[in-house]
């Protein structure tokens, strides 16, 4: 079963906050390997009854129910009648995002001014800022701050996709639950919320047996024991139902009544239909299609080898697009400090050995008040300022140590991390 390749997404893909559910490092990438790369062509199941998707050549697109190959142009023809097109992803796969951009461009060219985009990567409270960004009224720094407040995956993976959305002023809908509600569910589960919080939840269907079976397999595959599964499952339900409600609300609104929507979300939220698609259809029964990019050559370090996938009587998707796997080339630099907000700047809580910061003499407890002449008011100011530099750049820092102002100079070093 190809449950293994679907990205569970999300808790580990969102930064700047505690994880509400058990830590699941790597699940946003892929769970991989309950289906074997060497599986014979005849090893088929309901998820893909005519083709073993691990045997589809890279670049080919297959209509899953029939196993028939289609071209990119024909795919757009076939997706065109749908009101909603769901395109899954492994978050840190450039090829998956290339597929998403190809589909969005094709549908936008076919239906100019009649396409919306919904993204898992943004929470509902971000909507006013997203609207300003689409209109060109939110600058690059503020948008980047918004991005990392909502999502923890490098914005560079989505750069071309986001540029196309903004350049063409395509309405962008924030689909996901607020951080506040996610943390409440992550602490107490849905049943443990007080009545006032229960009223704020979307309508939640807890009775999909296939959704539950698949998530149980993933949860067990991550480690021994079942403690915490109910909290984990309730958090996933919150995400899927909130995103489904957001899709239905946007398409039912006066602004969306004559539009289609392309939804970008982690593969597990759309694959098999039991995440967002089925729950959105319950609210707004409109035709939809699902496209899943899939790579058979997923890195071993990102696979989860002990997933015992259930045999679900569900087709994976309408189409599978076979792709390779590429990640961003690492061109980043880091100052090499852990930081926290402080009343008069940014406080350094730790300094990495052999880092730019250590070489510059920065110590734990120092307060960074300016970086190359820019005032530092919060941690994002420093993160953004560092990202604008290149290896070898010389920068001046002003710090406060034991109440005294100190000026130092640093030579930026390349990151040692992939």
Task: Name a few traits of the molecule.
alpha/beta; disordered N terminus; eight-stranded mixed β-sheet; single chain; six-stranded antiparallel β-sheet; 418 residues
Q: What does this entry show, briefly?
A:
The protein is of the alpha/beta class. It contains 13 helices and 14 strands.
Folded structure, characterized:
The protein has 418 residues and is of the alpha/beta class. The chain is built from 13 helices and 14 strands. The strands form two sheets. It has an eight-stranded mixed sheet with strand order 2-1-8-7-3-6-4-5, with helices on both faces. Strands 9, 10, 11, 12, 13 and 14 form a six-stranded antiparallel sheet that branches. Helix 9 (229-252) crosses helix 11 (276-283).
List the helices and strands and how they pair.
Elements: E1 61-63, E2 68-70, H1 72-79, E3 84-87, H2 94-110, E4 115-123, H3 127-134, H4 140-150, H5 159-167, E5 172-176, H6 179-188, H7 195-198, H8 209-221, H9 229-252, E6 260-264, H10 267-270, H11 276-283, E7 288-294, E8 319-322, E9 337-342, E10 345-351, H12 356-359, E11 367-371, E12 374-375, H13 379-387, E13 394-401, E14 404-411
Parallel strand pairs: 3-6, 3-7, 4-5, 4-6, 7-8
Antiparallel strand pairs: 1-2, 1-8, 9-10, 10-11, 11-12, 11-13, 13-14
Helix pairs in contact: 1-2, 6-9, 9-11
